[in-house]
## 1
Amino acid sequence: MSLHIGSIAPDFEQDSTHGRIRFHDWLGSSWGVLFSHPKDFTPVCTTELGRVANLKDEFAKRNVKVLAVSVDDVESHKKWIGDIEETQRAKLEYPILADSDRKIAKLYDMIHPEANDTLTVRSVFFIDPNKKIRALITYPASTGRNFQEILRVIDSLKLTDEHKVATPADWKHGDDVVIVPALQDPEEIKRRFPKGYRTERPYLRLTPDPSK
Ligand code: BEZ
């Protein structure tokens, strides 16, 4: 099954470093970030898992639960966590799924055979409180992810859900945003964007972040 933006994130049950996880129940009404790692005891993954642990408050502030997947077992994950905490000066408090049977890797198409037959690529699934996949990114094993970008995508998804705006190139929380082209009613524009807006082109109208 290929997963797209707008697909319901497939539910599953799997062991983890925090016990058995039933994914949809575990998510509850939170947003979720499900992210895969090629293998335990590998250098880039070690830095990534430490980085996510150190961003705990940033994810919590946004009501996002994070869940890592790696194709090794719980015992291996627990040993690896010791290394991550020591080398990355982090306290790893989120669960790592033990996907030894590749159940989740297959369900979420995280193994790309042209890259590697057995290891997962670096996938990230952004899942909203309705369990819908709202964004996905995929990197090869050799490229560690930028977790500020992952937070930025969440900020954009939440802002654009609440206001009739889209976020431009390199946007970050607090920057000006664009008014969606479909919004043309002058009264509605005035009501939604009381701080005003500037028109660079009829289709390119910028306004201060309406959530501020
Ligand atoms: C890593 O996490 O460092 C890694 C994993 C698999 C292949 C290459 C690098």
## 2
Amino acid sequence: MTNTAPITQDVLTIPRKLPEGPVNIVGLTRDRLREVLIAHGTPEKQARMRVNQIWQWVYGWGVRDFAEMTNLSKAYRAELAEKFVIQIPEIVNREISADGTRKYLVRIAGGHEVEVVYIPETDRGTLCISSQVGCTLTCSFCHTGTQKLVRNLTAGEIIGQVMLARDDLDEWPTKGQGFGTEGPRLLSNIVLMGMGEPLYNFDNVRDAMKIAMDGEGIALSRRRITLSTSGIVPEIHKTAEEIGCMLAVSFHATTDEVRDKLVPINRKWNIAALLEALRDYPKASNSERITFEYVMLKDVNDSDEDARRLVKLIKGIPAKINLIPFNEWPGAPHQRSDWERIERFADIVYKAGYASPIRTPRGEDIMAACGQLKSATERARKSRKDIEAEAGL
Ligand code: SAH
Ligand code: SF4
């Protein structure tokens, strides 16, 4: 489809040359870590082994101080401490909801803040992380969409969110006790469903998730990581190829007319283009279904016809449909659909052969629901007029 909607994206480039001052190790891929170690004087012959050792300390056992890396010589530890740091974002506030949900307010370089949410369930625990501060897109129902993009998070800040949650949950194995791959884990799943559009920060998200999946570190299986996108069609294929994680798509509407308003990126890549990319998603199979996220908005996208159109549209795609009761926020231009309506919608989808779980609102007492993360201190706001104009409201 042709489209002229003014949707733009500011991409910050990652400097590839050595920065001045100590280098942060967190967020570097194994290859990049090897490069910087060599550039700072580690003999090339030893570099691979040093990468392995440092990697295990940092990502396997959660160590932040070179002095504790006892399988490295004292002299080498001192050298590392001079040239490198092991730095993750700082938790500035933590709230724990009555249902156990934990919301962290996290400060990153430049004084910006993002939120991270940990949602415990009986057999697993999911961490919802952010990929950008703010978002360039302006989905009408999303609070992040009211905040201008401040910047992309670095790979270190993305994986750092996982590390700080592991710190808080006290879930780092001790050296010599494996990497936690065998036992049940408190933090067993990651969803990229916080602030921002992960596919507009592709390289950093990829590098961070590669670190999360590395078997000698955090060691989460790719099936336990879900990336949610609003539908950045050209990047979808790359997600399967270069990250290999599970995919969720913010679908939210069954006609272009409605989706153009709710998810304005639809004007650039419409429903047909999106579905085509999903049909080609190399990983989609019955055991690895694509999640279609569908926010339930009263009298906007929640009719029986919508439910029927939805199942027709996605026919042939291995899918499950996650119905999300709209999380209201002050000034939002929508209301949550009635409970009976959501159940009726779910029933139609279910009878057509798709799993259609209704996402239980979690941590509502601390406003921690994933997908509406908000930072009280983030002042850069898009004007309501901009949002309404974008959404055609
Ligand atoms: N930018 C990505 C990921 C972040 S949003 C995306 O749009 O997919 C994660 C999910 O929460 C998306 O499906 C988003 O549409 C949904 N969401 C955002 N605001 C919401 C709200 N107020 N209530 C319910 N779901 C919301
Ligand atoms: Fe951005 Fe996703 Fe919110 Fe849309 S729903 S504004 S893409 S964070």
